[in-house]
Design goal:
Distance between the termini: 46 Å
Low-confidence stretches: 86-92
CATH class of the largest domain: Alpha Beta
CATH architecture of the largest domain: 3-Layer(aba) Sandwich
Number of domains: 2
Radius of gyration: 22 Å
CATH topology of the largest domain: Rossmann fold
Number of strands: 5
Mean pLDDT: 90
CATH superfamily of the largest domain: P-loop containing nucleotide triphosphate hydrolases
Order of helices and strands: HHEHHEHHEHEHEHHHHHHHHH
């Protein structure tokens, strides 16, 4: 997917700063908008020796070749090891870190204290910036407070409020907005995604997340979940949990429990909207079903159920028995439907 064409105004804003770059840019916006792809494309374009019209990298020079191979001497990427490792890693192997470690930040010292290979910029991309704990963020802060000449930090964040205020204050913020739904839907359809509008709505308008959700578990998991949530008197928590657990196992790590909880949270948001006479935001094909359920459930009960899911969302990050967790989720939801 071409995220530059989806975010033309943001790309043009980045290009307008090429002549007088700040030492740190912070790209912010909801998950799945393509912020990391934009940061990577901008870094590659800045390092390119023969940039094309529009500030795009040429994809032909030696610098572009190095960048594509992941070994450009003037570029560093800081991200959690969990984003790097293959999802099909051996079972029983120690799970990779979900955080950017302090050792990764300290490892920048040699990189920042030597001259550039091509007498140009040194670029560090940090993705996502909120994956740094306080110690790591403080270590990076020392570098941001006294930036080396010719160095650019490109920070990417889905949740900028989780960053230290001192980190945010030393970055120039670049908002990345949600593209028009028609544009995103057309881009997803061009990539071969079926029912692009359905997945885009569930992703809150983020095309990257829509593609990710459709790919996880080959998309069938959402049909199982909506069938369960749409059931009234026929809801069977045990059977639905077994069916969904099977899809999760077959996905080999692509479908996480937290994605199921996120979808249930969005279903409750649509229930709350329907109870106030508003159209669904996430589950558009189930609009009529959601409206019918909302007529039977007191709004206060929906709010309590949503708060409970916030706790479940945190639990889903921990190693636990997927079947028992899903059974608990669906039993809680059945309790919501009881008159």
């Amino acid at each position: 997917m071409n995220f530059i064409s989806l975010h033309k105004s943001t790309w043009e804003r980045l290009q307008s700063q090429r002549e007088r770059l700040p030492h740190a840019l912070l790209l912010i916006g909801q998950r799945g908008l393509g912020k990391f792809a934009l940061a990577q494309a901008f870094a590659k374009a800045l390092l390119c020796e023969q940039p094309r019209e529009g500030g795009l990298a040429c994809d032909r020079c030696l610098a572009c070749n190095w960048f594509d191979q992941g070994n450009h001497p003037d570029f560093r990427l800081l991200q959690p090891q969990a984003l790097v490792e293959d999802a099909d890693a051996e079972e029983g192997k120690k799970k990779a870190s979900q955080q950017i470690t302090i050792d990764q930040v300290r490892g920048l010292d040699d990189f920042l204290n030597v001259g550039t290979h091509r007498a140009g910029l040194k670029i560090v991309v940090v993705n996502p910036a909120e994956a740094m704990n306080r110690s790591t963020a403080n270590a990076l802060l020392k570098t941001l407070e006294e930036p080396a000449a010719g160095t650019l930090f490109l920070m990417v964040s889905n949740e900028p409020l989780r960053l230290l205020p001192t980190i945010r204050s030393r970055c120039q913020v670049v908002p990345v907005n949600v593209p028009p739904a028609t544009v995103s839907e057309a881009a997803l359809a061009a990539d071969g995604l079926e029912q692009a509008g359905r997945w885009l709505a569930l992703a809150g308008g983020s095309p990257g997340l829509a593609s990710e959700l459709a790919a996880s578990g080959r998309g069938g998991w959402l049909d199982i979940l909506t069938r369960c949530l749409a059931a009234n008197g026929d809801l069977d928590p045990i059977a639905h949990a077994a069916e969904l657990e099977k899809v999760i196992k077959e996905s080999k790590g692509k479908l996480a429990l937290k994605s199921v909880v996120d979808a249930m949270q969005k279903w409750l948001v649509d229930l709350a909207l329907a109870s106030n006479g508003q159209p669904a935001r996430y589950f558009l094909p189930q609009q009529a079903t959601i409206s019918g359920l909302a007529d039977m459930i007191p709004p206060a009960r929906i709010v309590r159920a949503y708060r409970l899911l916030l706790t479940r969302r945190r639990e889903a990050e921990q190693p636990l028995n997927a079947r028992l967790f899903l059974e608990g989720l669906f039993m809680d939801y059945r309790g919501l439907l009881r008159h």
